[in-house]
Amino acid sequence: MDLQQAKLHLETSVLMGVDFLPVSEQSLPQTIADSQTLLTQLSKTHDATCPHCTRVTGYTQTVFGAGNPIASLMFIGEAPGAEEDRIGIPFVGDAGKKLDEIISAMGMQRDEVYIANVLKSRPPNNRTPTPEEIRHCAPFLTQQVAIVQPKVIVALGSPAAKFLLQTSRGITQLRGSWGTFEGISVMPTFHPAYLLRNYTKEIRAQMWSDMQQVMEKLR
Predict the structure, then answer these.
(1) Which class does domain 3-218 fall in?
(2) 125 DSSP 8-state letter
(3) Which of 7, 27, 38, 215 is deepest in the core (most CB within 10 A)?
(4) DSSP secondary structure string for all residues of 149-217
């Protein structure tokens, strides 16, 4: 996503009544500090105004995102789990440890990428987010993507892939094939939690094949 595309995203936000993001060419995020400032502002606005997260209860804290604010690679999952809810950082439980291993196998470190979820608060009993919850909370994810401006997004699991690709198809059908979100290449693949539950040679090989495509795209 280039600066003109990012500018259009921010202008659209203002038209929707979200006036906390700058829209002038000079103030678009071009450095780590610029992008981090915008992400911090967006996180605060989310916590104060999100139609979903300000209405529901039962979670400890919102989990907005973490990592390099100008990363070329962004991972997007579905929602925080129990450990993420406790600590306030995405992907820090068992699934997060597996994601760290995957990132390392790709020749990168966690702080080089940006990690977020579609939903910013933990659903009850770690259940899958509902379409209504996603509809209310996901616009903030769209703003995150506009600020980070990654070259590639990896959609981890069905909820993330379905939102980003605007499809009803499941992850077993979507994985391994490129899609796009706001002009950004999207690779749908299995969620690390699914990988842990189905730790077979076939599933591991499929997920690694997806990541190899991502590495090739980033070159």
Answers:
(1) alpha beta
(2) G
(3) 38
(4) --SEEEEESHHHHHHHHT----HHHHTTS-EEETTEEEEEE--HHHHHHT--HHHHHHHHHHHHHHHHH
Q: Token pair of 121, please?
A: 């608060």
The three-class DSSP label of residue 115 is strand
Classify burial at 144, counting beta carbons within 10 Å of its beta carbon; exposed 0-12, middle 13-18, buried 19 or more.
Answer: buried
Instruction: List, for residues 94-111, the tens digit of each pLDDT value.
Output: 999 999 999 999 999 999
Instruction: Retrieve residue 68's tokens.
Output: 């390099």
For residue 82, the Cα-to-chain-centroid distance in whole angstroms is 18
CA 215 – CA 219 distance, rounded (Å): 7
Give the separation between CA 74 and CA 68, rounded to whole angstroms: 9
> Could you tell me if 53 and 62 are in contact, meaning their C-beta atoms sit under 8 angstroms apart?
yes
Two tokens, residue 167: 């499809």
Cβ within 8 Å of residue 39, ≥6 positions away: 64, 65, 69, 144, 147, 148
Rounded CA separation 3/118 (Å): 23
Residue pLDDT, tens place only, 34-72: 999 999 999 999 999 999 999 999 999 999 999 999 999
SS3 82: helix
Three-state secondary-structure class, residue 66: strand
Between vectors from CA 111 to CA 91 and to CA 79, what angle results, nearest 5°? 20
Q: Can you give the residue ranges of every domain in the chain?
A: 3-218
Write the single-letter amino acid at 58.
G
